[in-house]
């Protein structure tokens, strides 16, 4: 069984993953409204990924014989002001999520809860991938000219993201 503090930490992370999904949904809806169907598609798929992460935490807590509490979610932040701002928000969100995952890893280490430590390693790896992806997208936008990116370059990115393969 999980310790009560670990149960609480994992449940909080379950909620954080659900909030991440909501926030990707908001960004996806914004991008679609701006006419970037490909970028929007990418963000919708990512919202789905975050929901899968939420389910992984939920499943794990139940599998360890502990209780799950489905909490209220806080609303996503304000709409981005540009595509660059949109990907900045994505990056910041991922960095903050990485931080909370690392805190639970640290906690599992201190509690010598090796099953949880092992479970969390998938997320440690996943966060590296997500941060790298967000950074690469930001680089592409910067190379394309940042806030004043030539429409052509953004349209190209829009196309590319519309076709990117799904992940876990
Ligand atoms: Fe759940 O991986 Fe992003 O935040």
Features:
168 residues, binds hydroxy diiron-OXO moiety, Ferritin_DPS_dom, Ferritin-like, identical protein binding
The number of distinct helices, counting runs of at least 4 residues, comes to 5
**Whole-number average pLDDT?**
93
Assign an overall shape.
elongated
Rg estimate, integer Å:
17 Å
The low-pLDDT segments are none
Bound molecules: hydroxy diiron-OXO moiety
Along the chain, the helix and strand elements come as: HHHHH
Strand content: under 5%
Supply the helix-strand structural class: mainly alpha
Helix content: over 70%
User: How far apart are the termini?
Assistant: 27 Å
* Main sheet: strands, sense, barrel: none
How many beta-strand segments? 0
Please summarize what this structure is.
With 168 residues, this protein is mainly α.
Describe the structure.
May alleviate iron toxicity in the presence of oxygen. The chain has 168 residues and is mainly alpha-helical. The protein is 76% helix and 0% strand. The protein is elongated and about 55 Å long. The chain contains five helices and no strands. The structure holds hydroxy diiron-OXO moiety. The site of hydroxy diiron-OXO moiety (OFO) has 8 residues, from helix 1, helix 2, helix 3 and helix 4.
What's the arrangement of secondary structure elements?
Elements: H1 4-33, H2 37-63, H3 83-111, H4 114-143, H5 151-162
Helix pairs in contact: 1-2, 1-3, 2-5, 3-4
The protein binds hydroxy diiron-OXO moiety.
């Amino acid at each position: 069984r999980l310790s009560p503090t670990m149960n609480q930490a994992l449940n909080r992370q379950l909620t954080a993953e659900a909030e991440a999904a909501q926030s990707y949904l908001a960004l996806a809806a914004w991008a679609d409204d701006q006419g970037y169907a490909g970028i929007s598609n990418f963000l919708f798929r990512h919202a789905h990924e975050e929901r899968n992460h939420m389910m992984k935490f939920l499943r794990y807590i139940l599998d360890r014989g502990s209780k799950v509490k489905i909490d209220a979610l806080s609303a996503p932040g304000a709409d981005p002001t540009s595509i660059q701002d949109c990907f900045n928000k994505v990056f910041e969100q991922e960095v903050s999520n990485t931080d909370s995952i690392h805190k639970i890893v640290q906690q599992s280490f201190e509690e010598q809860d090796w099953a949880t430590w092992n479970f969390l390693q998938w997320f440690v790896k996943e966060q590296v991938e997500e941060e790298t992806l967000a950074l690469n997208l930001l680089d592409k936008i910067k190379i394309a000219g940042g806030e004043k990116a030539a429409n052509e370059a953004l349209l190209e990115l829009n196309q590319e993201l519309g076709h990117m393969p799904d992940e876990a």
